[in-house]
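For the sake of transparency, this paper describes our internal protein records without simplification. The record that follows is passed on verbatim for readers who wish to inspect the format:
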Amino acid sequence: MAHFTNPLTPNGAIVQLYVGMSEARLKAMAVAGQNPPTPLLRDFLVDTGAGTAVDIQVLQSLGLSPTGSSHIHTPSTGQTPQQAFQYDVGLILPHSGAVKVFGSVPVIASDFSKQNFHGLLGGTFWLSVS
């Protein structure tokens, strides 16, 4: 089982990841002779009780479009689910010289502009790390 140790920050358990286009989108751009945007290194809060989510501004800066939508429950929605757009992204986890690439990860778009991080790494993401 994979593991790593990071210091706990004032913002919680933060992990840095590169966010970029999904593997399928990268292949389509290559076939079209287009250059993809450079993946962005961003801070993510580890939250095993959440789904994986990325700040909408990060997704927009990469030029990504939604691939669908999903109904989600958050502490602020109570019993009423909220519809959120879903995107497919590529995530790169650099750690201690080792790099783990996740070519296609479905994420929910959310607004983290008032937070000190750019996304949440939910429990299903961590199941795929090992």
About this structure: The helical segments are 23-31, 56-61, 123-127. The longest helix spans residues 23-31. The mean pLDDT is 88. The CA atoms of residues 26 and 36 lie 7 Å apart.
